[in-house]
Amino acid sequence: MSFPFSCNKCFKKDEEGTLQLHLSRCGHIICQNCLGSNCAVCSRPVKSLPISAKMPREVAEYFIDPLKYYQKFKQIAKFHREQQRLYAQHYIEVQKTEYKKLDEEMQGFSKLEQCLQSDLKAEREKVRKCKEQLACFERRLENGYYEQQPQSAKLRFNSAVTNGLKPFPQRATSLPTTTTLSVSSLGTENRKRLLNANELGQKMTLNKILELSFKSNSSKLY
């Protein structure tokens, strides 16, 4: 024991190691000379324990120099602070990583939003044009425009409206590939063949007539 404890009644110290001191239940130190049935300080019933090296640990700690505990507490506090610092550093790194991921996701969402806005603008423009065309068709119907057109134009318009196509007529760009000969431009025999063919209800082309004429001339030569 670092501090020289003494009796709380007579204040004698165990300097020579011959004076036995006792620790009462009420927290007072009483020497063997002042010890009685009641505490010499507070007069409470005494239940004491001899102060020696054989005391229980939880009782002996009261007689240890507090400076030793203070140094120990400083080491314990330093250890706890270091553990807290390491955990806080790890937590900050984790939060930075999560924030970076969220920032990348937000950038992706921003790009997606821009694309969707662009698509929406294009679709709205298509809807606007369709509405304009529909309004034009309705005005023409109200004014009787399609009633004045030929029957073929009406059929094309009705088919276009039904199938969702543009009701504009298309001009033919191809020409007939075969040409019918006139009777005056043929020879005597060919005119006879043409007349016979017309009587049978057939139409002969220039190539067919020339082929027949060539065969006839060839047979005469042989």
Task: Output the keywords.
single chain; 222 residues; mainly alpha; Herpes Virus-1; 3-stranded antiparallel sheet; coiled coil; meiosis; SUMO transferase activity; Zip3/RNF212-like
Précis, in short:
This protein is mainly α and 222 residues long.
Architecture blueprint of SSEs:
Blueprint: E1 21-24, E2 29-31, E3 48-50, H1 57-60, H2 66-142, H3 151-163, H4 188-199, H5 206-221
Antiparallel strand pairs: 1-2, 1-3
Note down, in words, how this protein is organized.
The protein is mainly alpha-helical. Among the domains are: about 1-65, Herpes Virus-1 (2-Layer Sandwich), CATH 3.30.40; about 65-145. The protein contains five helices and three strands. The protein has helices at about 55-60, 65-140, 150-165, 190-200, 205-220; strands spanning about 20-25, 30, 50. Strands 2-1-3 form a three-stranded antiparallel sheet, with no helix packed on it. A hairpin with a 4-residue loop joins β1 and β2. This is RING-type domain-containing protein. Keywords: Coiled coil, Meiosis, Metal-binding, Zinc, Zinc-finger. One of its GO terms (molecular function) is zinc ion binding.
